[in-house]
Amino acid sequence: CERGILCLFSRFRLQCESLIALILDVMTVAGVQRLVKRRGPWEMTPGFLDCIAMDVYSFPAAHASRAAMVSKFLLSHLVLAVPLRILLVLWAFLVGMSRVLLGKHHLTDMVCGFALGMFHFSLMETVWLSSNTCQTIISISTLSWSPFY
């Protein structure tokens, strides 16, 4: 985009949308995990860090959900060369597979995590916020109250 105020608002909108999508993803995945309460394939006692990171249950795979959502977000909003696009998709896939190979998730957990991440991306693309709303959210989060004067 051209340099100037429009480019700045476009960047704010992308930051706002990605932040809201990540918060939505964290809340949804944690809620579904607490509701389903499915354990991972290897019965391990969760450690202290697992409890703090809310990584006690396996369904759906949170890492896979966020990796799919972030990669789809970057693929649709950045102009990337084909090799970078392939690496981004490969990265998201390997994030999910690494959790399966570590024994934290079943393969179906990863697949459902990817689907949930794509759903969150699609939802945020559908409910695209206006520039004024994004500017207000960013000003509140940075404690800059200038838009309210």
Question: Can you describe what's shown?
Answer:
The chain is globular. The chain is mostly helical and 149 residues long. It is 70% helix and 0% strand. The protein has 6 helices and no strands. Helix 1 runs antiparallel to helix 3 (62-77), helix 3 runs antiparallel to helix 4 and helix 4 crosses helix 5 (107-126). The mean pLDDT is 77. The chain starts with a helix and ends in an 8-residue tail after the last helix. The longest helix is centred in the N-terminal third of the chain and has 32 residues, at 5-36. It has helices at 5-36, 48-52, 62-77, 82-101, 107-126, 131-141.
Task: Describe the structure using short key phrases.
mainly alpha; 149 residues
Question: What order do the helices and strands follow?
Answer: HHHHHH
**Overall 3D shape:** globular
Distance between the termini: 29 Å
- Please give the radius of gyration in angstroms: 18 Å
Percent helix, as a range, is 55-70%
Mean pLDDT: 77
Q: How are the SSEs placed, and which strands pair?
A:
Elements: H1 5-36, H2 48-52, H3 62-77, H4 82-101, H5 107-126, H6 131-141
Helix pairs in contact: 1-3, 1-5, 1-6, 3-4, 3-5, 4-5
